Amino acid sequence: MMMKRELHMFFVCSLLFFTACGNKQESEQKSGCRIEGDTVYVTDHFLLEKIKVSETESEPYSKKVITSGMVRPIPTRYAYVAPPFAGRVTKSYVRIGQPVHQGTPLFEISSPDFTSAQKEYFQAVSSRELAKKDLKRKEDLIKNGVSSQKELEEAQNALLIADKEFENASAALRVYQVDNLGEMILGQPLIVRSPISGVVIKDNIVTGQYLKDDTEPIAIVADLSEVWITAQVKEKDIRFINEGSSLDIEISALPGTVIKGNVYHVEEAVDEETRSIQVLSVCDNSGGHLKLGMYTTMHFLSAPVEQIQIPEKALLQGEKDSYVFVQIAPAIFVRTSVMVETTENGIAVISQGLCPGDKIISEGGYYLK
């Protein structure tokens, strides 16, 4: 009885074994390949012809960091123009949007303070002329033996003091950009001039308006041929950005328009609330597309490094990872996990898993899954 049972079990196991082998051979015939672990043996010649194999290459790649930005003026190219002292506007020379050069008249203002500065200047001129004449007279007298050496030294000291007062009075007027002091007339209004070259982007100048000495700026001149764009870059991405690095700028108001720029400065401190760092970029704006306060999209590009780049079609997705098939023999392929840096325009950048010269299935890898 026991012998019959053992023979029966042997017969059942043998049947299952030969059935499994038959199923495996039948499956292999249908798929055209045999899979053992991570290794795939292609047994079908026609399947092998459907697979495209290419060699991996290392090419320069720049890491992209994308963030938002805002257009700001460059401080040295942006000037608030306010009255230097209280007075009344007697004339305006400009209008909004007008290009101006450094020294271009903007408006005239009549002020008692300016008149007082003029008086001090003319008094200094008069005192210096008198001191010069007195010194000349003392020099002539001492030659004739009439004056003393002490009187000559006193006259020389008086001229030195008069010269200093003249220099101070002249400097006080040049602060207000009054250059032609010799042509100045007592009581004339002060001409306020542009401190920089640019365009008048704000004009609140009203003829006849009385301005206090603490009045807000009534004109703004800016050179916007170049601008700053401020961007907040996350702490984890700041390592990819360096001063001088290039970037592309997209403007939402002008779809498809890309402006080139360069990183000007990376702040030293991290914003503790946002955990981001401010990055200043200087950008060409000769076309006038960038307006102050406008939002932009910043595409920072890191310094290029050599990385493996493969066709995106070569990538296959597993349950836990991305992988490719690496050829180790004409009909033998190994499933190899890879780490993908990014995919763009049909190209996948690989940071780990492949080496230059590896042969991979660039098309048709899904036949082996």
Description:
With 369 residues, this protein is an alpha+beta fold. Among the domains are: 32-59 and 307-368, conserved putative lor/sdh protein from methanococcus maripaludis s2 fold (Beta Barrel), CATH 2.40.420; 65-75 and 223-301, Efflux pump adaptor protein, beta barrel domain (Elongation Factor Tu (Ef-tu), domain 3); 113-173. It has 4 helices and 24 strands. Strands 1, 2, 4, 19, 20, 21, 22 and 23 form an 8-stranded antiparallel sheet that branches. Helix 3 packs antiparallel against helix 4 (149-174). The relative contact order is 0.18. Residues 226-301 form the CusB-like beta-barrel domain.
Give a quick summary of the entry.
25% of the residues lie in helices and 39% in strands. It contains four helices and 24 strands. Strand 21 and strand 22 (332-344) form a beta hairpin.
